[in-house]
Write a structure and sequence with these properties.
The protein has 73 residues and is of the alpha+beta class. It has two helices and four strands; from the N terminus they run E-E-E-H-H-E. It has a four-stranded antiparallel β-sheet with strand order 3-2-1-4.
């Protein structure tokens, strides 16, 4: 599983820092690099820890995109 957290307000992606520091917001998946999360619990924890009160997030499974189970809404 390769998951990313995306703000539905700004479109930015929340990824763990590659150097073990605080998670960071990036504008593109290219900037995210290896900052994907491998389990749903870790993705949810990123949301709990780092999302602003006036923002909303969605967890996107990159392996699901382009398949029969792709997001349809």
């Amino acid at each position: 599983m390769r998951l990313v957290v995306q703000s539905t307000v700004t479109g930015r992606f929340l990824v763990p820092s590659s150097d073990g520091g605080e998670p960071i917001w990036v504008r593109s998946l290219r900037e995210a690099g290896g900052g994907v999360v491998s389990d749903l619990e870790a993705a949810h924890q990123l949301v709990i820890d780092c999302l602003d009160v006036d923002d909303y997030a969605q967890v996107v499974d990159l392996d699901r995109l382009g398949t029969a189970n792709d997001y349809t809404d």
